[in-house]
Structures are given as structure tokens and as C-alpha cells.
Amino acid sequence: MTEMDETFRRDEMRRAFVSEFEQTLEGRLDRYLEIQHAGIVAHHHFSPASSECIDLYRDGYFLSAVMVSQAVAEGIWRFVLERNGQPSSDDRPAIAPTLVAAGTITRECADAFIRIWKSFRNDVHHMNPKVATIPFKTLAQRNLQDLGVIERELFAWTVTEPGKMTPTQPKYWDTNPDGTATVFLRNPWVG
Questions:
Q1: Which helix or strand (DSSP H or E) is residue 55 part of?
Q2: How many CA atoms lie within 13 A of 65 on its CB side?
Q3: Which of 26, 102, 144, 178 is the most exposed place for a label (fewest CB within 10 A)?
């Protein structure tokens, strides 16, 4: 392929990408805004995946958004158990009421975890035939909204003095010796 052919090909692809973006922009905006995700969360190993999940949903990759939301919820669940000195259990829905009773998480947060776990996890991850019947757009929307509930609860913060964020639940934030913490910043106008 000549340099001229490559330049022509790149220009054609650029026009196609721009056209596709312009045609899908309003839907992407609508999906991004309907999620109500947390704009700032503590920076942990699952934070980038959580943000990628939001982008997948925004861009219309609903099956992938479901898969990633399930994985992120499982990662956050293990994180909550570890930070609270609780043993892990494969029967997550059974242990959730214990955490609610102990005041570790709210009923709303527990319900959000449970809905994500029950969102056809095994069928989706193992690509069972049932995936052909799952309404992925609706399921992805609900999972992302539930993930937002979980993150807003665990990583809630307030401004206690100008320019200073104070975590509502510091056990879920890794605070540095100087009192600062690394955050994962998403679009600050949403959440």
C-alpha cells in the first residue's frame, strides 16, 4: 500500500468515525446522564474498570457493560469484606443481611449488590444459550445504576473546609501520611 493509499484510507475512516459519532451523540449523552454514577471515588484496583463500565454503557455495548458491572461488583464486595475483617463467602446474598444488621452497609446498598449478582451472572460469563433472551440494554442500565448506589455509599465524601474532601467512610479510602488520598476522578459535572 502506498503512502497516498494509506492517507486516503485514514481520511475515509476518519469521516466514517466522525459521522458515526455525530449520529450517536445524543443517545450516548442520554445514557451517560441516566446512570447517575459517582463523580469521585477512592482510587482502588477496581476504579478504572468501573469507569470503563460506564463508558461501555454510554457507547451502547450493553452485554459488555453487564459483564464488567458484575466483575466490578464482585471486586468491590471482596474489598468491603476485607476492610471490615469479614470472611469471604460464595453465597453473597446470604451474607448481605449480616452486613446490613452490623451497620456495615445499608439495605439499599445490599439490595444493589444482590441485584447485580442475580443479573444472569453465570449465563452471561459462560455464554449459556439463555444470553440470546436477556434484555441487555435494560439489564446494563439497572446494573450501572446499582453500581452507582454502591459507589456513592462506600465512597461518599463531604467538603469540611474550602478545598478539603473528607470521606464519610474513611476505611474505604487509602489515606496518605499527610492526610491526602488518591481519588479516581470521573466527569465532575455528573454524580
A1: helix 47-58
A2: 27
A3: 178
Asked if residue 72 lies in contact with residue 147, where contact means CB atoms within 8 angstroms, the answer is yes
Contact (Cβ atoms closer than 8 angstroms) between residue 69 and residue 53: yes
Selection from 76, 45, 60, 59 nearest residue 148 by Cα = 76
Residue 131: all three cell numbers together: 444470553
Tell me how far the alpha carbon of residue 162 is from its chain's centroid. Answer: 29
Longest dimension (CA), the chain: 69
> Apex CA 48: angle with CA 180 and CA 155, to 5°?
45
Q: What are the residue ranges spanned by the domains of the chain?
A: 25-183
Q: Please compute Rg for the chain using Cα positions.
A: 20
| Residue 8 to residue 147: CA distance in whole angstroms | 43
DSSP 163: T
Q: Are 39 and 54 in contact (CB under 8 A)?
A: no
